Amino acid sequence: MGRWLYLLVVLGACSYTAPGPSAAGEDATIRPDSEVVPDVPPDVEVVPPDTMMPDGPATPQTTDHVASQDTWIDAAFLNENDNHGGTTTLLIDGSPAATGLMRFDLSGLATTSTVMAVELHVFTTSDTGDAVTVFPMLQSWFESSATWNRRGANMAWATTGARPPSRGTTAIATFTPNTPNVEITTELDVATVQDWVTNPDNNLGIALTVAGSNEPILRSRQATTGKPFLRITHTP
Predict the structure, then answer these.
(1) Taking burial as the number of CB atoms within 10 A of a residue's CB, which of 8, 134, 184, 199 is the most buried?
(2) CB of 135 within 8 A of CB of 171?
(3) pLDDT tens for residues 216-227?
(4) pTM here?
(5) Within 13 Å and on the Cβ side, how many CA atoms surround 198?
């Protein structure tokens, strides 16, 4: 009798079937076609890439702009109608008066650019002289035809010699070219250049004047080396 009981116990163990997965077990199983949720910390908003803000402010850039036109105009007797647009130097004097004119092409800058700093770079020759004062031009002029009496062919200055109101009355820079054959750097008024960038029609260039009679001679854009230029720091 005991052996039969033992046999029944053994047969029962062999026919045992493990219980199937529960409903909870099926829900917890990740199937190959199921969506995987990224591991994001609680209460952290996931921002789509196309809505992310730029990483900080725009980086300032510095660009150089070589003079696109320059000349000098001369009040000396019999020179009032002479044009010097093709010369390699610019003579600036107070007596008899001679005024240098420069203009810089800033069309490469967007009108929305913000000007942060401006430097005027000029180069002396062996002829140095008195301090130079720089004014913004308020009338247009032409390198190939400007003289003391006219700003262009058949176009007179408002006042001869590009004097006010043909130019402004407030200086936007000063420098003293008293060392021969060197580069001179001077800060130029930022607001003036910002206006040139924002309103390109106002970019009429600058006038360089001397009060004394010791005239400096600077290199022009036609020089082989040492062409005058503006260095502008701006964003973007």
Answers:
(1) 134
(2) yes
(3) 999 999 999 999
(4) 0.76
(5) 9
